[in-house]
Amino acid sequence: QRDAVAKMLYSRIFDWIIKSMNNKLVASQRGSIKPTGCVGLLDIFGFEDMPVNGFEQMFINLTNEKIQQLFNKIMIERELQFYAEEGIESSYAPPPGNDRCLDLFLLEKPQGMVASIANRIKEAGKEFNKMDGAPFVRQLNRNFKQQKQDYYVECTPSMISEVMRQKKKRWGKDIRLNWEECFQVKHYAGTITYELKGFLQKST
To answer: Less Cβ around it within 10 Å: N or C end of the chain?
Structure first.
């Protein structure tokens, strides 16, 4: 009964907001040849955590990381700067930045994820299968350990066993992952496990 009431309230409030917006926009356009009001919606990729996260999910989530960074800088940092310029006291603490997570992907020196994939493709030539999967993950593990990159997590058998258990609970089916082909990234929205299989083939 509580859920039904909540759904009804949500539906009626949503309808009221849309009706109010339409009335305002229509009223502003009366007697005008051109529309004077509009509402724009920005539809972006959603942050993804699928049963198996591969090449596509990694770059969708990278896009979301970049959007989150821009949001922090444009919407939050500028607002705080405005407060400071106007002498307005604010106790608001900005959220943790995600620059280090973006460095994991986008740095060229030392090599981030994107540069590592590009170089791996050059080394592999047409022999993608020999250079993909577990051998590539081992190289990434070494590289990011040397860089002390704290947003990259090297996987262990016990970690992947727990990931598979959680995925089965969430998705209702068995998910098989090879721990030697997996790594994790600590995104702003949560830690995601990626399986590095077919990355090089999909990158070409």
So the answer is: N
**Residues forming beta bridges with residue 190, ordered by sequence position:** 187
Distances (CA, A) of 90 to 71, 74, 94, 199: 19, 17, 11, 46
Interval 58-105: pLDDT, tens? 999 999 999 888 888 887 778 888 888 888 887 777 677 899 999 999
Tell me how far apart the 2 most distant CA atoms of the chain are, in Å. Answer: 70
Its pTM stands at 0.71
Burial of 115 (0-12, 13-18, 19+ CB in 10 A): middle
Residue 134 CA, distance from chain mean position: 24
What the block records as the tokens of 125 is 């030539």
